[in-house]
Amino acid sequence: MGFKKKQMLGFGLILLFLAILLSFMMVTLNNLKSSMTEIVENRYEKVSASMEIRQLFSRSDREILFAANDANKEERAESLEIINENHSLIESKIAGLSGTLNKIKAKQLLKEFETQYASYSITEAEIIQNVKSGNSSGNLSSLMDDQREKRTKVISTMDDFKDYQEGVMKDTLSNSKQTYEDMIGFVIFAVILSILVISVTVVWMIRSTSKDLQSITKVIKNIDFKNLSVIPRVPVRTTDEIGDIAKSFNDMAESLEIYNQKEKDFTEKISEQNWIQTRVADIATMYQRIVDVEVLADRFITRLAPMMGASIGALYVKRGEGVDMRFVKLASFAGDGEDSGRRVFRLGEGLIGQCALEKKSKVIDDIPEDFQLVTTGLGEVNPKSIVIAPVVFEDEVVAMVELASLETFTKLQKTFLNQVLDTLGITINNVEGRMEIERLLKESQAQTEELQAQSEELQTQAEELRMINEQLEERNRETEEKSKELQVAKLNLEKQAEELKLSSKYKSEFMANMSHELRTPLNSILILSEMLSDPNDSKLNEEQQEFARVINSSGQDLLTLINDILDLSKVEVGKLEVVFDEMNLSELPELLHRNFDHVAKKKNIDFIIEKSKNVPDIFFTDEQRFQQILKNLLSNAFKFTEKGSVSVQIKKADEENVAQWIQTKGASNWVEIKVTDTGIGISKEKQKLIFEAFQQGDGATMRKYGGTGLGLSICREFAKLLGGWVIVDSEEGQGSTFTFFIPSMPEGFKNVGEAIAASPEVAAANHDDSAATFVDQGEPDVVIMDEEDRKKAKPFCNKTVLVVDDDHRNIFALKNALKHEGMEILTAENGYECLELLEKGNDIDVILMDIMMPGMDGYETMTRIREQSKFEDLPIIALTAKAMKGDREKCLKAGASDYVSKPLKLDQLLSVLRVWLTN
Description:
Elements lengths: L2 H67 L3 H28 L3 H30 L3 H85 L19 H46 L6 H16 L3 E8 L6 E8 L10 E2 L4 H9 L3 E3 L9 E2 L4 E2 L3 E8 L4 E9 L5 H123 L8 H31 L8 E4 L3 H16 L2 E6 L6 E4 L1 H17 L5 E8 L2 H5 L9 E9 L21 H7 L5 H11 L3 E7 L3 E10 L42 H7 L6 E5 L3 H13 L3 E5 L2 H9 L6 E5 L7 H9 L9 E5 L6 H8 L3 E4 L4 H13 L1
Parallel strand pairs: 10-12, 16-17, 16-18, 18-19, 19-20
Antiparallel strand pairs: 1-2, 1-8, 2-3, 4-7, 5-6, 7-8, 9-11, 12-13, 13-15, 14-15
Helix pairs in contact: 1-2, 1-4, 2-3, 3-4, 5-8, 6-8, 8-9, 8-16, 9-14, 11-14, 17-18
């Protein structure tokens, strides 16, 4: 509890008791006042009123006696008047008294008095009547007797009423006295209790405050001002002002400890710096007047080793340059003759050679127990720590120092060594410079005589030089003219380079447009031929269906040729996208079997895959390009093999073997994949030719086996992009072995460049069809269904599709294919017609939207459709044959629900339609 709260609580309790005491006294005095008021004003008035009534009654009684016995006529009339007056006053007093009574008994007595007085008044009235009429005394006497009896009762009742009121007044007075006495007793008790509570509160406030202050004082007295590294803390028991004082003291103590520690650290650093500077200055002084490197080396290692606490040491100085460069030991400390350490080493040889190569120091503390280098008179001792440090001058290692100690080198010793070696490099360079100067001086003296002899000859040659100089000046002028001509040629070359760049752009745009123009008619060919070749749906005979299959196969070959040409175009401009990522090589054999077993079975040849155990499971490369290379190699192997076998051998490659074909730096490991067949083989003179585009072994091969001659060219180009290489070993008639070397590149192949993003014109040309991943080459299973099952399996019945395309061939093909599935077909040749059909309110379930159309293209059309809220959920599938990079994202952004590139695969299109129509 806070100090302020304690004070407020204490004084609050005091004020509370005083308030209670005063309240009680006020209540008691108020009750006493009420009692006295009742006695004085209430009871006294009632007693006084009863006395007055009695006096009036007694006077009326006397007057009636007087009037009945002794009064004359005049006196009698006066007495009767007094009696009437008194009677009126008595009734008035009774009425007033009746309104002030608050007790039941008093009311009963007054009621009884009223009754008796009324009866008395009747008798009194009869007496007065008789007196007035002068009746006989006998009748009056009986009335007087009755009057006396009733008067006695009235007086008795009035006395009872007066006595009751006096008794009540006495009781009230007695209660007032008791209340007064109780008040006096309570006041005394309350005063004593208040004094006790106030005393306890004051004592509690003083004790709690003094206890906290004493704890603070005790801690302050215990501070050792000579040692401020550890200062006692004040225990914080409260959250009041005293607690704040304790916290502030603790914060101050912590600050003093930190300051004291910093002061100690600073003093220690100053001491260490003084230690270093003193020894550095000592060694620098030793450098003076040394003119020989060997002397310098001997003095330096002799002086340095004791300063470092080393038990043995050696200094190696660089000799020679280039391939002849080596480091020779010029001096040692506590060495064991010629056998102590190496005499000579080169860069990279051993740890000391590696440190020299990297220009970095190395400290070895974990030394094997059998490493014994330090010798004494009694034997050999293994050191605890070894330091190897280069001496660098102008970013070149000029010497190496190695020291060994029986104790671990400290951080201070290492810092001292670094500073010493900084000046040693300069000193070695200066000493070697002085030695070189002395050598040159001697040579100069020897040459002076020779120069004197040659002086005359030089004078003779001076004239010749003058003539030669004139010739050189003439040649210089010719050189300047040629320089101007070269500048003009440079500008011409830059202009030609721009023209070539523009030509390359036109070429890429041409390739993309040709892709569009070729794929558009090819789309119709593939869809219609696929429909005609379907044995379940076609009405053609078997021979005509075979014709349709041949047409479809030829179209697929043409599509493959288009994709291969675009691949080579991208490789040629260096913009093929390569993405290095993790792949699992353990799954490769199963993948190869799954994709080529049916081919081997069909050709009745063996297909064998062997994978070595040392091949890593995790491999980093572009999986898409990797699989495309293997697909092309295996496709060629099966194509040119009529009997025998095709085998794949996967093993870890020998880096030295790979290095004879390609640079191996940067790869974590290499894998070698051999594809061997027993086919027709390749002659030696044709083995280089087959890796060029559109080339095969010979013309007969192309005619017999078909193909474009692009597969192996693509393999080698893709292999280069992945950092690998493809080689061939073949003998004509004996088969061929293609070896694919590929590196694992976790960090990517930096020589390829950043992401090698494909150019917009050709990058996405094979977005869907040449993804270079393995696909199932087997024929699809044919499932025969009855008519009812076929209706259930087709979700397209009674669905309306709007085909938007400017090419009538595509419209015709799609119209027939989709009608065959039971769909209703609407067509539009451009965006305007599409919007008109939608505005007419046709119930359209899906739109197939071509992108390249005249007037309004597919992008703008989809954007306008999506602007209408009623078409927000209408499925729109974008179709394009140009396949530019980024088209998919552009289509989806414009409002397409999905994207399919041409030429369309009917199964793919139906699958996409099924997804959107069922959703």
